[in-house]
């Protein structure tokens, strides 16, 4: 099996693409985007960080800023695809379904690149994010629009990769998958923000009854309760017959709910989700737990931004 054109194209996009935040110590100031272009002031960012719960946001970090994220997902609180949690594993808290550490850097004020490693399927990620439009206060541009691309390599050895005795190159290629997203967001008020994101996923190798290409639509929002605390939520709806919710294949749509706290230098999120994985290629296509049967798990994310450039005086 020769690696196809789509492999090269998506890999090139991921290498060539992906900013948000002004260089000051306080996170509120870092997130306060007050740029001006021809007298048209931009709206402050709709979201605090680059991710809601499962979904990416349209936000990027600004030039020479470095974003470190640590994300953790415990096992299901109740019944899950792997069994039933109980007091013996503290209802999922003794185990982790996924742990992810990511590093993102602002090449320009609108273009980020990043790398990440996650436990689930031993994934290594190379990603890029490019914001090509920003919402303006006079509504001449009502939306913020961003493109996000990820190339994922799974380090996990799977015997099905080599059942047909492929060449070494073909077996290697089967570890790759690709994600492309268009993210559209709008800040409706100082309290309410919303986004919509069509998602395309291509996996080089899938099980016989599955599909290499998957399409989904994600939606998410943030509602600020106090100056430093917000309610966050997101949902991904899988398109296509194979991944219809509650179908015979047992694949469900990911839903996340949580609280987000801004603590001056960090953004700290406490969440619940039925998605065991954090990487898009897994949680979009292969969420096998459901909220209605106890498949929810507790999750948290810590985000810290560092200024690697010379501080400016404002």
Describe the structure.
Residues 1-28 and 31-39 have low confidence and may be disordered. Helix content is 8%, strand content 43%. It has a single domain (5-307), classed as Porin (Beta Barrel), CATH 2.40.160. A 12-stranded antiparallel beta barrel has the order 3-6-7-8-9-10-11-12-13-14-15-16. The chain has a two-stranded antiparallel sheet with strand order 1-2. The chain has helices at residues 5-16, 27-30, 168-173, 280-283; strands spanning 36-37, 40-41, 65-76, 79-80, 83-84, 96-106, 111-118, 123-133, 144-154, 176-187, 192-203, 213-224, 229-239, 255-262, 266-273, 297-307. It is mainly β. The radius of gyration is 20 Å and the shape is globular. It has 4 helices and 16 strands.
Quick gist of this model?
By secondary structure, the protein is mainly β. 8% of the residues lie in helices and 43% in strands.
CATH class: Mainly Beta
Strand order of the biggest β-sheet: 3-6-7-8-9-10-11-12-13-14-15-16
Rg over alpha carbons: 20 Å
* Integer tally of domains: 1
Report the CATH superfamily. Answer: monomeric porin ompg
Which helices and strands, and how do they pair?
Blueprint: H1 5-16, H2 27-30, E1 36-37, E2 40-41, E3 65-76, E4 79-80, E5 83-84, E6 96-106, E7 111-118, E8 123-133, E9 144-154, H3 168-173, E10 176-187, E11 192-203, E12 213-224, E13 229-239, E14 255-262, E15 266-273, H4 280-283, E16 297-307
């Amino acid at each position: 099996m020769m690696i196809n054109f789509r492999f090269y194209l998506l890999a090139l996009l991921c290498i060539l693409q992906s900013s948000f935040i002004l260089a000051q110590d306080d996170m509120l100031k870092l997130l306060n985007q007050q740029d001006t272009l021809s007298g048209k002031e931009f709206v402050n960012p709709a979201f605090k960080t680059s991710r809601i719960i499962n979904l990416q946001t349209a936000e990027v970090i600004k030039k020479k800023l470095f974003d470190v994220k640590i994300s953790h997902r415990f096992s299901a609180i109740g019944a899950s695809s792997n069994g039933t949690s109980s007091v013996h594993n503290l209802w999922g808290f003794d185990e982790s379904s996924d742990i992810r550490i990511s590093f993102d850097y602002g090449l320009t004020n609108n273009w980020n690149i990043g790398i990440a490693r996650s436990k689930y399927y031993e994934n290594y990620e190379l990603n890029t994010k490019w914001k090509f439009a920003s919402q303006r206060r006079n509504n001449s541009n009502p939306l913020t629009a961003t493109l996000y691309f990820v190339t994922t390599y799974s380090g996990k050895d799977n015997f099905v990769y080599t059942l047909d005795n492929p060449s070494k190159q073909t077996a290697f290629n089967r570890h790759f998958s690709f994600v492309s997203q268009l993210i559209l967001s709008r800040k409706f008020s100082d309290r309410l923000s919303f986004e919509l994101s069509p998602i395309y996923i291509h996996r080089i190798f899938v099980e016989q009854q599955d599909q290499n290409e998957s399409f989904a639509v994600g939606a998410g929002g943030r509602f600020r309760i106090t100056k430093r605390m917000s309610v966050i939520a997101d949902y991904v709806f899988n398109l296509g017959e194979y991944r219809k919710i509650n179908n015979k294949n047992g694949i469900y749509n990911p839903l996340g709910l949580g609280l987000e706290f801004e603590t001056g230098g960090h953004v700290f999120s406490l969440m619940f989700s039925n998605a065991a994985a954090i990487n898009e290629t897994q949680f979009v296509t292969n969420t096998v737990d459901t909220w209605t049967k106890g498949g929810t798990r507790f999750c948290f994310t810590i985000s810290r931004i560092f200024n690697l450039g010379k501080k400016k005086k404002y």
